[in-house]
Structures are given as structure tokens and as C-alpha cells.
Amino acid sequence: MKHLFSLLLLFLLSGSTQAWAQTNIAGIVTDERNQPMAGVTVIIRGTNTGTITQANGQFSLQTNESLPLTLSVSFIGYRREDVAVRGNNFRSVTVKLSEEAIMTDEVVVSASRVPEDIQKAAVTVEKLGARQFQQSPAASPFDALQNVKGVDMLTQSLTFKSVNLRGFGANNNNRFLQLTDGMDNRSPGLGFGFGNVAGISDLDVESIELIPGASSALYGPDALQGLMLTSSKNPFTYQGLSAQVKVGANNVGKGDFGPKGYGDIAIRYAKQLGTRFAFKVNFQRLSGTDFIADDYSDRSTRARTNFFTIDPSQGGIATGIGYVPNNNPNTNFEYDGVNIYGDDINAGGAYTFPKDYANVLLQGKLVTRTGYTELDVLGNQGKVFNNRANVSLHYKLPGNVEASLGWYYGNGNFIRTAGFREYFPDYKRHQFKAELRGDNFFLRAYTTQQQAEGWNIGQTATAINNSWKSLNQWAAEFGQVYIDNKFGISESRATADRGRYLPGSDQFNAVRDAYANTYNTDFIPGLTTAKGTRFRDNSSLWHYEGMYNFTKLLNNTVELLAGGSLRHYGINTGGTAITLKADGSEYTINEYGAYVQAAKEVKVSTRLTVKPTVAVRYDKNQYFKGGVTPRASAVVIVGPHNFRGSWQSAFRNPSPGQLFAVPAAGKGGDVGGSQLAAQSAGLFTNPAYVDSDVKDFTAGRITEAQLRSRAYNPANFTTEKIKTWEVGYKTLIQNKFYVDAFYFHSKYTDFIAAQSFYQPTNGQIADFSTNAYRTLQINFNNYNEIFVDGWGIGSEYGLGRGFTISGNYTHQVGTVTLRDAQGNVVNDNAGVPIVKRKMSNPEVSQKGRNFFISPENRYNLTLSNARLTDRLGATLTYRWTDKMWVEQGTTAGDIWLPSWTSLDAQVSYKVPTFKSVVKLGGTNILNHYYAQGYGLARIGGLYYLSITFDELMR
């Protein structure tokens, strides 16, 4: 903290000796009928100075900018007007706004780090603002992203959703950078963004900008697949008291479980004191019942015997999934429920009877023991809560410079899915930021301080079972009773389960709490043979960055900016998630980077404008060689037609977890790619093997010698790289028809994926024949060449009388050329080289997981009218997402996830007297349950009623 306060003091001193030269600007804003308009945003173009009109339409603001200048005046549902302010009108500026159903004149900053019209951006960029938030049926601004073209949201909890773009969908997407007021939203140690768990209050969100695709040239190596910038409201511009109360229900139609209610309360207060100082305070509290992961169907996973359908005539090539699930544990030896834990066939819940077992009917049989549901293990009936708070102080210095100091807080419980399902009962995060921002520069310093303790649901369920009765004893009792398949399985399970800890009982709760509250590095109190399942990540991040725009110094001949950043990670997991150094201390990670960008807008003729842009950045992580990420782009404007194109390369440093993670002794889990992590996991003395190779060995397709030759070898772990090019087109025809289209092609090398490896329990190859192994998710650079091609189009058409119809469609395909550890192209089982084939093809997936996990097709359709009357507005949205091939984690599986649809709707009513809006809305209002990922909670209808009061007491 001392660094932040020292920096802020430097900010204040740097401007304290300069003189003020204030200009008081005043005016009025009316509509086409000359009626005063309240709540209109008025901002000096190119600055952060602004205000909002009063009930009589009048506004006033002070600036030390010299005249002439330009005011940008905007309001939901009206065309933005840019008004020149000169020496003869600055005290009586008159602005008239015209209604406009289609808004295309948004200003964005994420595309090039400087404000520019969205149509002039040389890369694909999306922006959601007040208009989109108000009209969206989504329950929060963050949830509104699900309507943006190309965005795939993976819902893990009611408050935790992961944003995915352009393939390789992940529950914990560490290829996508989320910035909140310029601060990295990710967990410092775990390495992924927590979505809205620790975001800013809904009432304080001004806009969300989204860049699909590589953005490393300006934002560093973590923006490999894209960038999301969430900006909060400035207290100088947005003042007064705002409040929102929302009540709703979900889990409708769940029989004995649902429906369940939830509540969401938010309050914001901002005030300007004098001419220089302003502050704001935010708080939001959500509580309710989470969507429940209650898929109890038999798990589809390549760990199953004969999982793929094999065509012997083609040398054993896979043609599809051959495993037929049996969802009845009373007739299925190997029943393994998707959201039932402790019964996992590859995570300590299965027993293989010896081939010489006394009961000949069970010789060589694999049997899973009885597990517990997710609700059983959690014991909290799915209750979820989330608190978000923010306090910030803002001070205006001479030269239109603003200094600010802010505190951002997030707290809540949630479930995340990695290789396993993990529960965080009380996550806390503090972020402190000091910033100095002017028209042509910014300096920023912030820190993230996190307290994240959680426990593994699956491992805890297995531990509860083993505490009651060992797997061997359970199997022995099963085998003594078993007679035949018709009656034997159910009777055998019932006999072996006698005396089992019942969910909710004192015995069950005591054992669960003992494991869940004991770190995985410590033995359970009173036991010397079992360790806990709890882990922690109390890591921290310190980040310093700045940028300067030299354009004015160059007399606007060329737009030139340069910037740089320093960051320091302090890992703090106590060895529970990330291994410790040999001396027992924690790791630290240091990174630095710098960039420069040059652009020039050339007006060739009255209808033709060309703007080329070139940017290059260098970044260095202390554990890897530095890398350069260039970007070249251009936009060509021909009348209303805007053509854009870009090429860029990018790379990504592995997250701390991907670098150093080690599972608890004897248990499965993630393993980092570093040699230190491999050594801690015992991989040098007891090698692990890719799951597909183990299957080939047990099926007799390869020899023991061949299997040993393919053991995981911790080679040089390096950065992940991508090269991508993109073209796009954007236009607005007759102010009624808007089109935005794009096409992209990307190539990945040194792709980092957590592949499933099997490590024999006793270090013997023979262990695989008795199911005696643990499953590790090892992060490593594969040698594959991976290609992603996609295109998308979004359009909006004004039907008249305020009605608009809009929609978007996105198509993307991932292909791969498979290579072995020596770089040779891998053949499928028919002997045909696997070159640029779809990663969802079974003959490709048969040779190993590639984790593309993205639908090939998805579209949204929306009919909206924000002004059915002066007070009434409504929106109806239909969303469809294609089926997708999922390869996910240790206890998830491999499956074609079905396509799904959702019908969303909202009706809103304005009450001007109380400056309020009443909104009745819902997502998936037809309540067709679907899952966005295998093993995730199934999403049903979410229905809500909200009332929002905005800028009272202004």
C-alpha cells in the first residue's frame, strides 16, 4: 500500500503549482419537439470532463480546456450530437437531439487505447452501454454479453460466468483478459478471470467493450484471445443517489427442490464538492440459490473401456462414441453419475476385481461404489451470495488532469470447474488503485489482494466414502453377495452400502468438515494416513503502467503513443495449490513490457479516408524468453462503407498454476509444466502416460516398450503463440440498416493444454490392468499445429415507430495437425496422417484431447422497442447454440453436448416523477434446461422484477 500512496502523493504534487484557467460552459438540450431532456450525458470530446442535464434540460460544466472545443451529447435512443463550442456561444450552447433506433456512433477506447469512433476501429470491437443494458432481458450488464456475436458464456455459478471467444472454450479462460477500470480482473495465482464475482456494482457500470481476437500488441501476452474492458461511471459526470431492488426466482420445475427465490440490492451515491473534488460509494448484495449441477446420467468419458466405436476394417479407426450409458446404478457395474462424486471410475471410486477372483462372475470386472450428489456434499442447499463494494475519490488538477484513488471489493461463494468441481465458500478480494489521467497520458498503479480458499468436491466425496469403509472392503462385501446381473448388482450395492454415512447426518457432516477444513498438505486431526482436501490461493499482484500520447506534440501530423508496464506476482498457497521452493518459500513472478503505436488518417478525397496503424510490443517474464508481438491494421472508409483488416501475432505466458501447480500426494489434479512441478509430482521416478496411450496398451495395440517410450518428459516449457489475420466490413445504410461482418484465420503453436495422464499407483505398468492409477492434468506444450477459422455477421434494421429487429450469427471451426514429441505427423489408426482435421472428429479425438470445446454455429435474434409509448419499452430475444464436442477435465468427460435454445424477454416502464424504471424480465423463460459445459450446472428459467431509481438528490 505504501507504494500506492507514495505514487498518489507524487501525482498531487506534480500538478499543485500549476495555475487554473477555468471556462464555464452552459447550455440546454431539447428533443425535436423542443421539450427539455433530463439525464442527457454531456462530455468534452477527448477528455473525461462531463455532466448530465437537469430536469429543465440545462447543464453547466467547468473546464480549463481552451476554446474552441467539442461537446459530445448523447442519450439512450437518440443520435449522438457533436457540438462545437466557441468564444461566442460557450455560455448558451443549444443542442437538439433526434430519435434514432440504431446507434452506430459509439466511441471506443479499447481498440487503440485512444478514443475513436467505433466504425473507424481497425479491429472487430463491440460495445455495450446504457442503451443495451436497459433493453437487454439479461439480469445484469455482465450477463448481457451473451447476446454479443461470437461470445460463448460458460455458466459455473449464478455469479460466476466465463467469457469465451474464438474457440478453446474453458471454464477458467486464461487466454482472455478482463479489465475493470484498467485493472486485471484475474486471480493472481489461479490465473483466470472471476467474471462478475469481484466486478463492479451493476449500477456503476458505464460501458463494456469487447475485442474478440488477439490484443497482445497493446495489452500484453495475456490478451491472446481477446479483451473485455469494463468502465465505471465517473462521479464528476454521474452524480446523485441511485438504487436498485431486484427480486426473482430460478430452479423452477425442479420437483422437490424448486422454485427458489433470490434478491439483489444495489446502491450508488456520487457527489461533486466544489470544482475539484468528487467521490462515489457503491454497494451491491445478491443472495439466492444457485443453479444446480444435477445431471445424474452415466458419465461419458474416454476412461471407459471401448469408449470409441472402432472400425476393424480401417485398422481400428474411431468412427464415433461406442459407449452406451446405463443410468441405473442397480443394473450397471460401472455407473458413474456426472454430478455424483465418489463413484468416479478414474478418480478413486472404482475397483477392478482380480482375474483370478473367487467369484468367477466378477473376474476382471470393474465396479464403482456408491457416490454422493453435489448437493449432498455441499450441504448448503445451493445457497449463493455475492457482495461488491467500491469507494473512489477523484480530484481535478490543472491541465484537465484527474487524480483518483479507489478501493474495489468482491466477496462471495461459488463453484468453479477445472479438472474437478471445486467449492469456494467465502472468496474475498481487495483491489486498490491510484491513477493520474490526462487528455494525452495516464499513470496507474494497483494491487490485487486475494483470499481464496476452497475444497475439491469430488475428492471430499471419495474421502467420506473411504473414511466409512475402504474401497477394498466395500468391493469384498459386494463380491460376496453378487449372484447375477438381473438382481445381483442392486443387492450387492445395498449390502456393501449398509451403515453408509447418510448425507446431512452428524457423522457425514463431521467427516466432510474434517476434510474440507484441513489443507491438502496436512493430515486429518487424529489420522496419520489421510490428508485434507482444502487448498488456498491468497496470492497478490502489484501492477504499474503508464502511457503517453505524443500526437499533440507532433502537431497532429501522426498519432503516436507509447506505454509500458511492470507487474509482480506474490504467490501464497502454502504449497496447497502451487509447489513451494526447495527452501520452503513461495514463488514470485516478475514481468515487464513496453509498446509503441503509430497511426495516420489520410483523407484521400471527400469520400475516401484511409487510416493505417502499426503497433509493436515487447514482453518478458522472468521464467521465459522475451517475445515481440506486432500488429498491422488499416481501415478504409468509402462514404458509409468501412472496410478493416489486421494481422498480428501474440503469445501467452502460462499462469502461475499452469507453471507450478502440484496435486496433493496420492491424489489427482493439475500439474504445472515446469520441471519443478514435475519433480514434485514424482514424474521423474514414476512416469505418467497419456490416457490414449494407456488405452492402446491395455487393448494390446502397443507394447509395453512402446508405452514406456511415450512417457511424459518435462522438456522446456515455453509460451503459447498465435498468428492471426482478420478482415471486416461495417456500414449503416439510410440510417435504417446496420451491418458488421468479419472473417478471421488463426494459427496456434506451442499450444498449452492440460492433457489427461495416468500415473501408476505403485510405479508399475501392471497397475493399469488393475485400475491402480491416478489421473493427472499435466500442462504442457504440444507439438500440434492448430488452426481456427471463423466468420460472423451482425445486423440491425429499423422497422419504424421505434421497432428494431437485430441478429447475429457466428461460425467457427477448429482443425489440427497432430504431431508427436519428435515433431512427426501422427497417423490415425488406419495409417492416414492427421493433417488439418476437425478436432471434433473421433479419429482425431481418439489420439488425445484437444479442448476446442466451442460450437461451430450460434445465432441470436432480437425484436425490440425502447419506446412503445413514452414510458413503455420491451425486448424479445431468441438464442440458439449448436451442439459441441466437449473434452473436459478429470471427472467430466468426452461427449457431444446437445444444442440448446433460450427465449428471453423484458418489459420496462419509466416513472419520470421518481426517476425510476420498473422492469419485468427473464432469461430462458420457457424453462428448457440446458448445460453450457459438461458437468456444469443446468440452466433453467431466471425470472425477475426490478425497480431502479437513478440519480436522485442530484
Offer a concise description of the structure.
Helix content is 11%, strand content 44%.
CATH superfamily annotation of the domain at 578-659 and 688-912: TonB-dependent receptor, beta-barrel domain
Examine the secondary-structure arrangement and name the CATH architecture of the domain at 578-659 and 688-912.
Answer: Beta Barrel
Shape from CA axes?
A: globular
CATH level 3 topology of the domain at 578-659 and 688-912: Maltoporin, Chain A
Main pleated sheet: 22 strands, antiparallel, barrel
Structural class: mainly beta
| Number of DSSP helical runs | 13
Radius of gyration: 29 Å
CATH top-level class of the domain at 578-659 and 688-912: Mainly Beta
Q: How much helix, percentage-wise, in residues?
A: 10-25%
N- and C-termini, Cα separation = 33 Å
| Percent of residues in β-strands | 35-45%
